[in-house]
Each structure stands twice: as C-alpha cells, then as structure tokens.
Amino acid sequence: MWSQTRLGRRLEISSFVADFIQALTDRRWPSLGGTGGLTPKEADLGQICELLLSRRGEVSGVALASLLLDAYAKATPESQNAFLRTLLDGFGVDRDALAQAITTYAATGEASAAGNLHKAAEPRRQELFRRLNMAPGGTRALVRMREHVLSRLVQEPELAAVDDDFVHLFSSWFNRGFLTLEAIDWHTPANILEKIIRYEAVHEITDWDELRRRVEPRDRRCFAFFHPQMPDEPLIFVEVALAGQIITSMDAVLDVGRESIAAEDASTAVFYSISNCQNGLKGISFGNLLIKQVVTDLKQELPNLRTFVTLSPVPGFADWLREELGQNSLRMISIEDREVLTGKDLLKHEEHDAEVRRALLRAAAAYLLSAKRGDGRPLDPVARFHLGNGARLERINLLADKSARAMRQSFGVMVNYLYEPRMIEENHERFAENGEVVASPETRKLFRPDRTESEKAIM
C-alpha cells in the first residue's frame, strides 16, 4: 500500500483509491473496463492527483489520468470548483524544495544546480497537467478544464495562478509546428461543418443553406487550424471572399442573389470573418498565424491575387461615441460634429442625411486613430489585433453591416485593414515600438480636418 510519505501529503487513503491501486497492482485494469464501475468521490480527486505525480509506470499513469479526467467531467459544478481550488492550494510550488534549490545554486553556481532551481520553481500542477495530457482525449479535456477556470476568475481572481500554468503549457502544445491548416468546403465532414455554423462569432450563419453559400461557390474560401489531438475541433477559422476589388459592405459578401466570379479572375482576397472556436484557448495566439498562412497559400493557388484586406467590425465604436457625446468638455470630436450627432438616433440609419454621415465618418476616424487604452494601444480590440499583425488601416465604411448586432456595436461601421506583404513587418514594428496606427492618407484626412486652432490647443 502507498504510504503517506510517497503520496506527498498527509492524507488517509480512501477506500476507492485503495481499491483502484489494488486493481492496478493485480494487473486487472484492462478487465475493469475503464474504472470498472468505481466512482471516485470529491475527496478522492486530490489523492488521485498525488498518485499520478508519484507513479513512474506509463500504463498506470494513463489509467490514473483517464480516471481523473473522467471523474472531473462527470462531477457537479460545485465539485469541479472545489477541485480547481485543490489545484491552486495543493499543487503550487514546493516551497521547501525551492528554498533548498536556491541555497544550493547560491553556494555552487553550477549548471546542474541552476537546472534544479528551474525545476523546483515550477508549480507541481504543471507536471500534473502534462501527465493528464497522456490520457486519451486529455488535451481536449484540459482545454475544457481551462474554460471552467476562466469562468471562475471574476469570483475567484486567485485562480489566475492556475490559469497562468495552462497558458504556459498551451502556448507550447498549440504552437504553429503542431497545427495543420485545412480548407473547409461543402465536402468537409458534416460534424465539422456543423461546428463552423456553431462557432461563427462575427456574422451569424442561420442555416445550412447560408453555410453552403459561404463555402461552396468558386469565389469563396474558408480555412481552419486544427491540432492533431483535437482533429474534429477547429481552433480558429477564417472566411474569405475573392473579388475584383476591395469589398466595403457585407451585402456584397452575403447577398443571396450575387453573381460569383471565377477564382482566377479575382484580384482581391477579403477576409470578412475570423472566429476563435475554443474558449479554453483564449489568449493563445492563432489569428495572426492563420491570416499570414492563408495569404501565402492563396498566393500560391491564385497568382493573380494582389490585394489582401479584411472587412472588419468595430465593436467598441458605438459605446465610445455615446460616452464621447456625453462629455461636458471637448475631447476628440469637433464642436460642429458634436452638434450634428447629439440627440440623433444613430440606430435609425435610414434617417441619416449627408451631414450626419460625414460627422459619423469623422467620429469613427477619431475613434480608430486616437482613442487609446492606458497602455497607449488602440481602444478597439479588432484594431489592436490587425495593426499588431502589421496591417494598415485602409478605409472606413459607413453602414457596411446593417445587422442588429452591428448597429448596436458600431452603428454599422466596418473597416478594411490592408495586409501588404512587403510592408507587414515594418507596420508591425511601428505599432509594436511606438503604438503607431499606420493608416492610409485618405483615412488620416478624416480625423478632425476642420478643427480650429483653439480646438488643437485643447488636444
């Protein structure tokens, strides 16, 4: 029987864990049919974690990992929350081992001591996650577990330490070297197509007919990243419209009656929707890799493509503009535009006259070019993403998306970000180094072109 010392914690071994160890010892695990009908209690899960960290045999390790992940998946939300607390409180850094490693390295300075120090500084749960990942379906189960951690961060911010360990490991497990890029078309297996419908986060796909219009025509493309441990789960996907010019509204993309063109006749690729699919991989960067890989693949397939742009939402514009118009002091909008826009119901786009449209366009330019967070980066998350990837703010389009959600978020405004391959690196550096919003001359002219000298002095 495992001793308390070998378990690493002063715990009484539950009857369940004892029976499970006996099953492993008697080599009856394969005949048990998984857990053999045994169901661990909430108190058993921490002991199973300790066992998993102490075992050296691969077969028993896989069995324990499978048992734990299965038990966690079937547990009540309350029991899952309790287990996350166990991960936080019971599987952090071994303070005694770390203190000893620090002392040894300070005394010797040897490379081996530095290695031991590095190992001792790692929270025990990172090795636990690695071992859980050995179980069949372990990667997928750990991604789901991180979803639970993220859902608890507001109520229990201290769980951020557990989340940091997930991010550390996922950044390695989901790096570009492990990902495969797959084209999604009407012949893709139905279970994956169904997930494309479900995960679409920018422009809702209402039914299978609409999905077909997005992936089957000769001038439409869809690409997704997959991971070998989650072969039927897209991680992120992008939808592309091939066209003869830059597309400036969603009507031109989704119109049921539109006429398609031959792919080889297209000069422009428009990335009109990018959707992350796995909440448990939030913060793991895929989008920039996806766009750059798709650009490369499309150029190889269609040498006539010369222009690569997005048609992107501006999700924070409406809230920002309402706050801006409510300010007593002048900020980023001219007095004249403030007077035009104040009191107008900007959701009723059919009532916009030319004066309102011009003022709204200038306000959008002010938001995208000058509204910043505390760190000096653009307030708009989509702008941060594309500018950080080396794109240029090319064009602002009014009433480009009249859907209810787009009107609420941005009064229908959308943006074309231009990915010019020879300028991507330079644009990225300008943004990364100085927070510069690289924009076309036409867009820059929109920002407060008529402000007075007194207004300039206030800025």
Short précis:
With 459 residues, the chain is α+β, with helices and mostly antiparallel strands. It has helices spanning 4-7, 15-25, 29-32, 44-54, 58-74, 77-90, 95-108, 111-120, 124-132, 138-152, 160-173, 190-199, 208-215, 250-254, 287-301, 317-325, 335-341, 354-370, 381-388, 404-410, 424-434, 441-446, 453-458, and strands at 180-183, 220-226, 236-243, 268-276, 307-310, 312-313, 392-397, 414-418.
Could you characterize what this model shows?
This protein has 459 residues and is of the alpha+beta class. It folds into three domains: 4-173, Malonyl-CoA decarboxylase, oligemerization domain (Butyryl-CoA Dehydrogenase, subunit A, domain 3, Up-down Bundle), CATH 1.20.140.90; 176-310, Aminopeptidase (3-Layer(aba) Sandwich); 313-458, Malonyl-CoA decarboxylase, catalytic domain (Aminopeptidase). The protein is 51% helix and 10% strand. The strands form two sheets. Strands 1-2-3-4-5 form a five-stranded mixed β-sheet, with helices on both faces. Strands 6-8-7 form a three-stranded antiparallel β-sheet.
